Amino acid sequence: MTHDHATGFGSVTRLADAREKLLSVVEPHGPTGRVEAADALGRVLSGTVDAERPVPHFERAAMDGYAVRAADTHGASERSPRRLDPTTDDIASGEAVRINTGQPLPEGADAVVMIEDITERDGVIDVTSALAPGENVSPVGEDVPEGRRLFDPGRRLDPADIALLRATGVGSVVVRDPPTVGVIPTGEELVEGDPDRGEIVETNGTMVAGLLEQWGGQASKGGIVTDDFDRLADAIRTAAETDDLVVTTGGSSVGDRDLLPDVLESVGELYVHGVAIKPGHPLGFGVVGGTPILALPGYPVSCIVGATQLLRPAIARAGEFEPAPIHTREAELTGKIASEPGVRTFVRVVDAGEGRVEPLRVAGASVLSSITDADGWVVVPESVEGYSAGETVTIEAWRWTD
User: Fold this and answer.
1) What is the pLDDT of residues 193-205, one digit of tens each?
2) Nearest 10 degrees: CA dihedral of 58, 61, 62, 63?
3) Angle between helices 312-319 and 15-24 (to 10 degrees)
4) 64 part of a folded domain
5) Are 22 and 46 within one domain?
């Protein structure tokens, strides 16, 4: 593919095709190791995990009341209560022990009378409800039996998973190492500190590094690389030698300072340059030394759209897990949304209350605050020429995926 600054993008690839091409060159990360269950949050399992003990591991009361022998309550009713003697130890026939929900059942007991079915008088209790053995009792293994399969390979462990591992006695698990992603911010106008006139604080690289950590990758963020062909080439070659994926920010379009497409062609192979999405059209990616290199646009909103659509699934492919689903909801539009046929459009929206959303921006890919202000975006497919006010649309809350 030839990159020609005079003619612009030689061709434009549909988003689904670009994603498929990228994923076809992403290889599984591979390495694994055993870690303590308490330290496994966010890690991806490489093998199955079974419960090492049941939950609960003892019979326990499922209600507040009295632990009893069910046989002692036979025939009990409001008119004909069964009288039992309270005790505080193991019980014999005709005795009962006060018990709270979750406490172990005392020896000799096999049921729990609910407190509302008990009348206490003169140092004894009257039971007004007959019980069957096991009634109001949580048996051993009711929640999780010993040996039950808990998780399969590819599971990315969340806080509830960690809690279940601890409860079932699983002390350690074998997990895959997270795929490493080299993040290279580019642009001669970028600075890390306070900017002078004409300078811009570097934010895209920091933002992308945070996103990929959230998505299951391990960021390796380098310093800013200026718009110099040789420096860009060296930075990409170096990152490609050590990381599973490399992502650059900025310099991916067709301007005089947009050198990344030419660099990728020079040091590797450029697969895609220009994707039919808005914002995010100047996306590109290639391969250098077997390592996929994703070139994200410099405008922050374009960068975020490109990252969610391509980097997020690429990290999951490298880490051999399924990405968490993006939260969605239905809402009614308060205003019209326009889009270009053949282009997948991501329109930022804000909550307008009462099940409605207001379009915030279609254009303005440089306005970072429009992402922080937005409550999600509406995705307009390539085959749809926008939406009218009053239509019900699907909102993707892409920032909340885990």
Assistant:
1) 999 999 999 999 9
2) -170
3) 30
4) yes
5) no
Range of the domain at 110: 60-138
Residue 111 lies in a domain: yes
Question: Is residue 5 situated within a structural domain?
Answer: no
Same domain, 40 and 166: yes
Burial (CB count within 10 angstroms: exposed 0-12, middle 13-18, buried 19+), residue 143: middle
Between CA 14 and CA 19, with CA 15 as vertex, the angle to 5 degrees is 120
Placement of tokens 């890690």 in the chain? 43
Q: Alpha helix (H) ranges present in 91-221? A: 159-167, 204-214
The phi and psi torsions of 341 (rounded to 5 degrees) equal -55, 140
The pLDDT mean for the chain works out to 92
Measured in residues, the chain has a length of 402
How many domains does the chain fold into?
4
Give one word for 232, left, alpha or beta, with left for phi > 0 and alpha for psi -120 to 50: alpha
- Residue 204, φ and ψ in degrees, nearest 5: -60, -45
- Per-residue pLDDT, 15: 97
Give the pLDDT confidence of 230-285 residue by residue, as tens digits. Answer: 999 999 999 999 999 999 999 898 888 889 999 999 999 999 999 999 999 999 99
Nearest residue to 217 via CA among 156, 163, 260? 156
pLDDT at 362: 67
**End-to-end CA distance of the chain, in Å?**
37
Under DSSP, is residue 182 helix (H, G, I), strand (E, B) or coil?
A: strand
Is the pLDDT score of 90 beyond 50? yes
Residue 363 binned pLDDT confidence (cut-offs 50, 70, 90): confident
Share of the chain above pLDDT 90, in %: 84
CATH of the domain at 86: 2.170.190.11
Please say whether the beta carbons of 264 and 240 come within 8 A.
no
Residues 115-159: tens digit of each pLDDT:
999 998 888 999 999 999 999 999 999 999 999 999 999 999 999
Q: Which residue has the tokens 């053995």?
A: 133
List, in order, residues 6 or more apart from 320 with CB less than 8 Å away. Answer: 28, 29, 44, 46, 153, 154, 176
